[in-house]
TrEMBL record:
Lineage of source species: Bacteria, Pseudomonadati, Pseudomonadota, Gammaproteobacteria, Oceanospirillales
Membrane disposition: Single-pass membrane protein
Name this polypeptide is given: Biosynthetic peptidoglycan transglycosylase
Known pathway: Cell wall biogenesis; peptidoglycan biosynthesis
Ranges annotated as spanning the membrane: 12-30
Domain Glycosyl transferase family, first and last residues per copy: 55-218
Similarity remark: Belongs to the glycosyltransferase 51 family.
Annotated keywords: Cell inner membrane, Cell membrane, Cell shape, Cell wall biogenesis/degradation, Glycosyltransferase, Membrane, Peptidoglycan synthesis, Transferase, Transmembrane, Transmembrane helix
Length: 230
């Protein structure tokens, strides 16, 4: 019986690996119908008896504002074109800070955030972090950088029930994803650490300060020409 149980465990494990690879290959070419974080938010809203309508509109790369592409890189992961999914310097710094008794701060790249948002859940645990590493490696291996950023901009959360740049642009500014300006993009990128608590249209002093920093970083990166490095 123990031998049979072990064989079944191995089969399930191998099946999960194959399924994950097939999903990543599929989403390399097919627009995503949604994400696991969207599903999680919807389920939690139902359980809490707080109805929530999801706002999500898949938008292809060419219809996403270049300013928004640059802004999220400037705000979240300036080494995005150069790393293979992980910013080892940031990981090392986070570990050293933790060893000194400080809270364990995030060191997630855009690739890691994309892997988590699409395939996993938002809870912090060692299991989820381990799966995040696996899916990050897969998308870095199978997807080009443009696809990773395209998916990220389509699934990232920008308010309660608002996912992706198209939905966020309509929700906050009444425009399409392709029309987002540099200033609007900087404000949208500025609220990513707390999208359900901060607003780009009624920015707090903290958001305004962070937005100004993002705009400065966008200029220092060389403007939208930086996207040619992807």
């Amino acid at each position: 019986m123990i031998g049979q149980l072990l064989r079944w465990c191995v089969r399930i494990f191998l099946g999960a690996i194959v399924l994950s690879i097939l999903l990543v290959i599929l989403f390399r070419f097919v627009p995503l119908p949604g994400s696991m974080v969207m599903l999680e938010r919807k389920v939690v809203a139902i359980m809490d008896r707080e109805p929530m309508a999801l706002q999500y509109h898949w938008t292809p790369w060419r219809s996403l504002s270049d300013q928004a592409k640059l802004a999220v890189i400037a705000a979240e992961d300036q080494k995005f074109p150069y790393h293979y999914g992980f910013d080892l310097d940031q990981v090392y710094a986070a570990i050293q800070a933790w060893k000194q008794g400080k809270s364990l701060r995030g060191a997630s790249t855009i690739s890691q955030q994309t892997a988590k948002n699409v395939f996993l859940w938002s809870d912090r645990s060692w299991l989820r972090k381990g799966l995040e590493v696996w899916f990050t490696l897969l998308i870095e291996l199978i997807w080009p950088k443009e696809r990773i950023l395209e998916v990220y901009l389509n699934v990232v959360e920008w308010d309660r029930g608002v996912f992706g740049l198209e939905a966020a642009a309509q929700h906050y500014y009444g425009i399409g994803a392709s029309q987002v300006t540099a200033d609007q993009a900087a404000l949208l990128a500025a609220i990513l650490p707390n999208p359900r608590g901060w607003s780009p249209t009624a920015p707090s002093a903290r958001v305004a300060q962070r937005s100004a920093w993002v705009r400065q970083q966008m200029r220092q990166l060389g403007g939208t020409r930086f996207l040619q490095r992807l």
